[in-house]
Amino acid sequence: MTEHDDLNLFQRLIAHLSDVERRGIDAVGAALIDAAGGIDRIGDYKVMVAYGGGKDSTYVVAIVRAVQLRVQLDHGRTFTLRVANMRHAGVPTAVMENIDRVYAALRMLDDDRTELLTVDRTEIRRFRVDLPLPESVVTVNRLDVLMNGHRSAGDGRPTFCNSCNLAVADFYGRAGWWDGGVDAIMTGDSRREQALYAAWIRRLARETGVEPDRTGTLDFSQLLTALRGIGDAYYRELFGDGDDVVLAERSVAVGNRTIQPRFVSIYDVVSYRVHDHWDLIVDFLGFRFDDLAFSFTESDCANPTLMAHLRGLRAELVDGRGYAAGIGEYLEFAESMMRKKEMPDRLIALALGRYDSPTKISERRALAADYALRAFGLSESAMAAIVFSPFTDQGQRLAAFLERCHADHLDRLDRYHAALRAEPGTESEADWLAGVSGLSIALLRTLYHDALVDFSRRDTVMARVRSGDPHKQQVRTVDPRTGAPVVELISGR
Q: Cβ-count burial of 390 within 10 angstroms (0-12 exposed, 13-18 middle, 19+ buried)?
């Protein structure tokens, strides 16, 4: 890009920003020059932004791009900007299309001052909008959803987010250390949020038997090392100790300890309320709130749609109260979360309006079932099995699952228990159970000897993780045994 191109883009970009944000861009640029050791060394300085493809991280990318251009225009040189996006099976195609439009609007696709990366677990490639998602990623994500779901009866955050959050930690390490590493990671989290997150990791690590450095602030490598220890304990609890391959491929990368990028917050100079910069996000950058990608509090992930779907299935199949009852409970939770995140009324109305009639609920149910199959390879029978968790606790709920979902197999209940106990001569029963659940008979037997997680106690890593997770709330529901009104704590996004 020429100087004229830089100036034209910068002027068009900051035209959408407030005076406070413009002053913030100057302040961040000055701080980066100082951190680099002066303007003569800024050309060797590398800054990373982790880009999820949602509305908030889109805003961060735009702000840091403005900083990069400002430094270039003022001094004739600037830092390299690495933007890395992590993918998983719950990321729809529309997210990659949003990212592509944002990169194009910011003139980043062909700028040699930028490094645009896509990270698919261990595979790091240059960004391309049509980059296929490796089947290995889908396989890992599918297995994690199933195993987490069966241990939690399909509760939203454990089922979809626990493994994903550990994968995010791994992503930060791989993206931050790739090809010589970066010097700084720009984040929209406040310093208080970062401190609270680090304290939570320390506490969780200690409770899990991992002892992080007790003094000072955890550096990048120490933070990821603590998360690696937590992750290792989590997956041993989930899968058992027998499969080293499964455990190894989920281990958080700890990378190069000699490269310790610092986290730089832009929180104090920006506003994360979408309606404060709607014109920037939607009009200038071309961001679109897609039907699947915009899912309740998320604008880069369809998994919350599946969380609502599981709540509906549980109300219908397990409790006998009807699918719509469960959806209503999830909507109560989701609206509260959206308001806590200060989402604009127009987006809240858009998200909730998709479920505001029996016909729309039926349509959303079909959309969720189709997406579960396309994205994760999860059939309707596999999703039904998740909400029953019929294999844990020595198959305590297996009879209820068969009676409700596979009544013609109820007479084989004893044979299915025998297969789960690995008794000889039960191969056909083992094959049927694997086909219905989507899990291998070996993993079903692991579940058979495990218990459904009791979230009222802190005796499992999963329960400890959920205890410290703010994305949960009590909702009004009905006791299916007595019909009396009760409240239940659920989690989700």
A: buried
pTM for the model stands at 0.94
- What beta strand segments (E) does 345-484 contain? 472-478
Retrieve residue 90's tokens: 């719950």
Q: Give strand ranges (E) for 54-162.
A: 80-86, 114-120, 123-126
Q: State percent of the chain over pLDDT 70.
A: 98
Calpha distance 347→332 (Å, rounded): 15
Question: Six-digit token pair at 173?
Answer: 């390490």
* Three-point CA angle 316, 461, 140, nearest 5°: 70
Per-residue pLDDT of 71-113, as tens digits, reads: 999 999 999 999 999 999 999 999 999 999 999 999 999 999 9
Strand order in 123-126's β-sheet?
123-126, 114-120, 80-86, 46-50, 184-187, 262-265
245-285: pLDDT as tens digits: 888 999 998 877 778 899 888 887 776 565 678 899 999 99
Instruction: Report residue 152's pLDDT band, with 50, 70 and 90 as the boundaries.
Output: very high
Cα distance from N-terminal residue to C-terminal residue, the chain: 40
Please tell me the distance from the alpha carbon of residue 261 to that of residue 173, in angstroms, as a whole number: 10
* Neighbour-count burial of 243, counting CB atoms closer than 10 A to its CB (0-12 exposed, 13-18 middle, 19+ buried): middle
Supply the mean pLDDT for the chain: 93
Cα–Cα distance for residue pair 406/428, rounded to 1 Å? 16
Going from the C-alpha of 102 to that of each of 52, 54, 186, 473, the distances in angstroms are 12, 11, 18, 34
State which H helix or E strand residue 347 sits in: helix 345-353
Residue 295, SS3 per DSSP: strand
Q: Which residues pair with 115 in a beta bridge?
A: 82
Using alpha carbons, select from 83, 303, 71, 279 the residue that is nearest to residue 182: 83
Q: And the tokens for 246?
A: 């499964």
